[in-house]
Amino acid sequence: MADDAAPPPHAIAELLGPLCSAVLLLRVSGKVEIGSSTLVRVGERFLLATAAHTVDDARDEEIRLVPCGRSPAAPLPFLRRSVRRRSDPDDVAWVELAAETVANRGLGFVELACVGGNGGGGDELCYLVQGYPAERVLAVGWNGASLQAMGFVTLAARGRAGDLAVLYPPPESGEWPPPHPYGISGGGIWRLARSDVTPWRRGTRLVAIARGWRRRRGTLHGTPIERWLARVADDLPALRGAVLPLLKREGLDGPPASYPATSG
Hints:
Blueprint: H1 9-16, E1 20-26, E2 32-42, E3 45-51, H2 52-55, E4 63-67, E5 80-81, E6 92-97, H3 99-105, E7 110-111, E8 125-131, H4 134-137, E9 150-154, E10 156-157, E11 164-167, E12 188-193, E13 205-214, E14 219-224, H5 225-235, H6 240-249
Parallel strand pairs: 2-7
Antiparallel strand pairs: 1-2, 1-4, 2-3, 3-6, 5-6, 8-9, 8-12, 10-11, 11-14, 12-13, 13-14
């Protein structure tokens, strides 16, 4: 089925929402913050892809991982997470969930086959930014309420090499004006085929992790997902066999070797 217009944002958000978990931070100071993440299966392990600035300065006990449509009263337990890196321009991080947690909680995830490979843009493509904007999500109260991911269909913008930029606010928001993007950091940026009403039918790929917004330029920026995969391969040697073929396919030489690795 083809249509020249972009698919309705709510329809795509509902399809991709189950893959996106909120990263709720309950600071010991009493402050409540929020970020976003996407669950990816790498080999036989499950990692939440997110932005480093969302979790790096948080204590383990401050982090509550909340799946879309679920309550923070029952957060997801996690096994381990990436360690902080100084002066890391990629701004990416991972949090690992046990396979039993994914199965028992009925969590959705994206396979590596649908990750990366953004390639050229073109008029036939558009993007979906997925996450938990604090302005909407926390405004209704987080304690006891279910958290709902939101998705915004938009178009590519001009960015620097090694950077994915999209328009925000989206030019096609219509009667659904988007909120301030604070809270979307760490969420997925998905490539969609503009003519594809059902995004899983073809062309849908997780291509970047949202990391920042330039208000004056009206652009939201993301780190290509390949840089997150390179970080995973560097941190978790047991997963290099699953990750390196994909990085080579995308023309990357492999992960950096200068960072400390966690046990993997």
